[in-house]
Design brief:
Layout (H helix, E strand, L loop, with lengths): L1 E2 L2 E2 L5 E7 L2 H9 L2 H6 L2 E7 L8 H5 L4 E4 L8 H18 L3 H14 L2 H4 L2 H9 L3 H13 L5 H10 L3 E4 L7 H11 L3 E4 L5 H4 L9 E4 L2 H10 L8 E3 L17 H8 L7 E5 L9 H13 L6 E5 L10 H4 L6 E3 L16 H12 L3 E4 L4 H7 L4 E4 L10 H9 L5 H4 L5 E3 L2 H13 L5 H12 L6 H34 L2
Parallel strand pairs: 3-4, 3-6, 4-5, 6-7, 7-8, 8-9, 10-11, 10-13, 11-12, 13-14, 14-15
Antiparallel strand pairs: 1-2
Helix pairs in contact: 4-7, 4-8, 5-18, 9-10
């Protein structure tokens, strides 16, 4: 294996895994990914959550080396971030995606500074000239020259990994590790950690040596949005985080779960799952439904409000405490911590699993929890309206459900009940409580479409993808060395 200009003897592969999100920590901690990888390689993890004392007990049970994430610097605004935005605009105009076009129209145009918006004119011209690949290659080369983490480079020189697996190619931290790895000639495999990333996030900064995705659909989107990946290996492994849903060790009886959540096991449970408060003000819909539950409009039921585990900062107590005992709010010990420092212990994982396992109906607004509920074959009510007073984001929400690349097929699949107001929301919940098998077949279609595999073996499949990628890189390196050696021999005579 080549490391810079040095040839490394092949024995056990050294694999470095990166994580900067609790959603990926779940995969590392609670699936068979690590155990399977250890059979053929030596594994090291760099995780942003590993630096927190509160998470030390979580990571201590992992039988591999787990280290704090290196210190990362931000790009300077000018010219680096300007070039990034220019590149994104060029691709948006050259190959407009409904998701990004909608987001730009409803959100980003209102938030971006004038100087950033001024880049749109040259971007349009470059797109008309079909120079998107030229621009991206130049911008990538320029960004790679900015040293965002001297610590990462030093630690990579010491560790000498054969392969790095980045699980956050769209995030702030991990592309900095890629830049250091690129400088040292270390191959990097990028895992796309969610089904919406390719069509909703800003463009990946760099071109990786291979990719891991959930499904055929995501592979198709990757090839279309990032044409250079036609020449790169792309591995389909399923959604490893949902392996956890297949593990009986996390299952609780309904009685035990309800006791922990202060619920009545004899009454139906309506779970209202709230997304990121930075995007939409969904809690207004939960408040409205809570008021109706208390008034008895849905009969003898109870409601459990689940905040987003990444964004919960315990700010919802003032809204929902007054509705007890009919309505309960889940709490997280992560409240107040930096997003990248959050992780989940086994108790929190069990709460996540059993929340959707014991839900009778799940209500949400175009969230991945639709998949969580569908895996347990529980009905999903999906808001097709803005629940906040004034409905400032009404058009955006309509776009999410009916135009956005990742969610439009789900919203219009017939596997969720779209509702246009709170009265319809109440009616849909009541109908699902009476007939929970309604739309069963379409829910099965949803999980197959999004997840690809759902056999509890996606972590193993991901480990095998990493192993196969390592073997591919090693074979290519060997072949190159043989060509170079034969050339040197030939030129000596």
């Amino acid at each position: 294996m080549r490391f810079g200009d040095k040839i490394i003897e092949k024995n056990r592969t050294k694999i470095l895994l990166l994580s900067s999100s609790l959603l990926v920590d779940r995969v590392f901690l609670y699936t068979n990914l690590i155990e399977t990888l250890k059979q053929s390689g030596d594994v090291t993890i760099w995780a942003t959550s590993a630096g927190s004392d509160q998470n030390s007990s979580v990571w201590s049970k992992t039988d591999v080396k787990v280290e704090k994430f290196p210190e990362i610097l931000s790009f300077r605004e000018f010219p680096y971030n300007f070039l990034r935005r220019l590149n994104e605009f060029v691709w948006d105009y050259r190959f407009p995606l409904p998701s990004r076009t909608s987001m730009r129209r409803h959100v980003r145009n209102k938030q971006q500074e004038l100087i950033i918006r001024s880049l749109k004119l040259p971007a349009r011209i470059l797109a008309m000239l079909r120079l998107e690949n030229f621009v991206e290659n130049k911008v990538e080369k320029y960004l790679l020259g900015f040293p965002r983490s001297e610590e990462a480079e030093a630690r990579l020189r010491e560790l000498k990994p054969d392969v790095i697996v980045t699980t956050g190619p769209f995030q702030f931290e991990q592309p900095a590790i890629f830049a250091a790895a690129k400088k040292l000639g270390i191959p990097t495999l990028a895992y796309i950690p969610s089904w919406d990333n390719i069509t909703t996030k800003n463009r990946m900064l760099f071109k990786y040596d291979g990719y891991i995705v959930w499904s055929e659909q995501i592979k198709k989107e990757l090839r279309e949005v990032y044409p250079h990946t036609e020449k790169q290996p792309v591995y389909i492994v399923g959604a490893p985080q949902y392996d956890i849903f297949k593990q009986n060790r996390f299952y609780q009886s309904r009685e035990e779960f309800c006791r922990q959540q202060n619920l009545n096991p004899e009454l139906p449970i309506i779970v209202y799952a709230i997304g990121s408060p930075n995007f939409l003000k969904e809690h207004h819909g939960a408040i409205d439904l809570a008021e109706r539950v208390v008034r008895g409009e849905l009969g003898k039921v109870q409601m459990l409000v689940r905040p987003h585990p990444i964004h919960d900062n315990a700010e919802l107590h003032d809204f929902f405490d007054k509705f007890a005992p009919h309505v309960r709010l889940q709490q997280t010990p992560n409240a107040g911590k930096k997003l990248t420092e959050r992780s989940q212990d086994k108790e929190q994982i069990a709460e996540w699993v059993n929340t959707f396992r014991h839900a009778d109906v799940v209500v949400n607004l175009s969230s991945t929890v639709t998949i969580d509920a569908a895996i347990f074959d529980h009905p999903v009510v999906n808001l097709d309206f803005d629940p906040q007073p004034g409905q400032a984001q009404q058009e955006l929400i309509k776009d999410i459900n009916h135009k956005w690349n990742h969610f439009q097929p789900i919203a219009e699949s017939g596997g969720v009940w779209l509702v246009n107001n709170t009265d319809e929301m109440v009616g849909a919940v009541k109908n699902y409580l009476k007939n929970p098998s309604l739309h069963h077949a379409k829910r099965q279609w949803i999980i197959n479409y999004v997840c690809g595999y759902l056999d509890g073996k996606c972590g193993e499949r991901m480990a095998n993808a990493i192993r196969d990628f390592s073997a591919l890189i090693y074979a290519e390196s060997n072949a190159k060395e043989k060509v170079e050696l034969n050339y040197k021999i030939a030129t000596q005579f």
